[in-house]
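Hey, weird one. I pasted the Serine/threonine protein kinase sequence into the form twice and got a warning about non-standard characters only the second time. First submission, copied straight from the form history:
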Amino acid sequence: MARMISFGTPVNDAERWAFSLLADELPEDYILLTNVEIPTKSGQAMEVDALVIGEWGVYVVDVKGYIGRLDAGMHAWSLDGREVDNSLAKANYVARVLAGNVKHKIPVGVYAPWCQGMVFVTGRKGEEIELEKQQGSLSIYTPKQIVEALTTEWGLTAPRKHQVTDTQKELVLETIGQVAIVEKRNNKIQDFTKLKCLFIQSGLEVWQAEYNPGEWTAPWLLKVLIPTQFADSDQSEAHEAQLRSEFLRLQSLSGCCGVPYCAPLIQDGEQLVLPIRMPRGVPLNVLDSKQMTTYQLLEVLRRSVTGLQQIHRRGFTVGGWTSNCIFVSDMGDVEFIDIKDNVSSSDDIKAYAQGFLAIAEQTQQPRIYQWYREAVAGSTTDLDALRSDLSALIDHGVCDTVPEKIEICAGAIIDHHFKLEQFIAAKETSQFWRATHLQGQYQCGVSIYSKVEANWPMLSSIYRTLAKVYHPHIEKVLAFGQLPQSDNLFIARAWEYGESIDEVKEIKLGQPLMWFTQLLTGLQYMHQMDIYHGAICPKNIICNPNKAILVNFGIGLDIAASHYACQYADPTLWEVEGEAERDLYGLVASFIDAMAPESLKGNLCQAGIINALEAFDREWFGEKLYDVCHKVLNFDLSVHAGMNYLEMFDLAENDVI
């Protein structure tokens, strides 16, 4: 991109388009002066469309927006058969005047640079132009050749070709006069000084600038909109609306992490300018993440997700996820400089995960990179869970060494989140603890299970699903995983007060029916999502005076299967029954087992449970409820999709709390 100094305003669209093309395509060491005046000896000035100070010469460029077929000769030109002015003759004359002026300023021992005229025929923005030159050496070019003619020696008409030195370039600028003043004027917008043009197209420019009101400076970006340079007023108004909308977004998001500060819009009659503080650091696409430590990578991820959360909570989305629009500082700060608010929050999270997945995988922390992989697949949008996991890893310093085997005791920290506080109970293959969530400082329950490695894939699937759903009578799963260097797994769940149904000391009238009704609603909800408990027994039903909760999905399958198959149910029937029928059988059998006197249950075989049921008063029990329970215990009831469990057990009229 050439150094462009504008002395005046383009007079037409052809000039505007030509200057934009030359500024974009010419090398950085070229100087492009537009709408500049060349003084003559008489004191009268001649305006030049463009003056290009290049590697091989100084070119006086006359811009013509001719459309059609141009037949150009040494003396006469015609456009589609109509006579038009010979612009090259005028450009060559001005070039000779400029060369004479430069020679008068050149000191002894310094050669004057070659000056020549050139015509740039633009057509309609590079199209709809055909050029026929009667002599191939004439310096008349279309957009296809203009840049090459200005940057290579074949475009020079000098008899001897010499490269232009820096001293010669400065002499040309001195001849023009006040170039530095004009450049400073062009580059000054209030207290902002434009330093480098990063983007230019039609009437939209992006500049790297500095803010220098006094003794100090600060880097900024300036988005500049020049209405007169757009093809039509509709296009200009649309871009102006976009710029104003961006300003309002940034103002609304002021104070959020990841959002750069912006100053008020500047409108001086000729242009509309949005100043945005230059983001600190480097773009994500050039970030050398391989040189960063694991904790630095985790901090980048934590700050990025914090910023995204805050933006979403104010009702906006980022949308602009190209890697060169995301900046990361040395301190791990992350800023998004292209906040478009043009996608849904779920799509925004998916795009965010795609952008940061490589960094997440570099951390080698499974909980972290698995979240990003799931988010890319669209299967999670839980930013809170990710941020909590990142904080736990950073705050507890768990990435320095290989995770050690955890000794299950008071004070042990499970999964970097849960501190075991009080032992509650234990069975042969399980323990239950009251714990504290370290980041949230609230009570929760943690169960530790051993000898379940054979069922790990099935359990993992169940608990990943349970962590995303909610029902008041199904355990609320907070976390699930395998303990390091162990075959044991843990389940962290919301803390629920109560006892297993077979250990409740005092049962009031109406409570069993209330509990049964509540658990039916929860069981139906789970079955609708193809989640089956598979191990319902009295120990997995937790009751308090107000509600019952079904816990331990899939845990204790061996106990449940052996218990029901050998005592509650016929083994052959148990093997062939469907999962929904097994769950209903387990629920009914568990309540009968917990409520019936020992003398009625006998040895707890299927016949014993049915005998215990039959000992209840049918009228007190409820005729339909009694009959359905009887069918369930005999496996005479088939469950099908869409079945309403409450209606099936004649409990639809009961209140479910």
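That's the output from the first submission. The warning seems to come from a hidden character in my clipboard, not from the data itself. The two ends are 71 Å apart (CA to CA).
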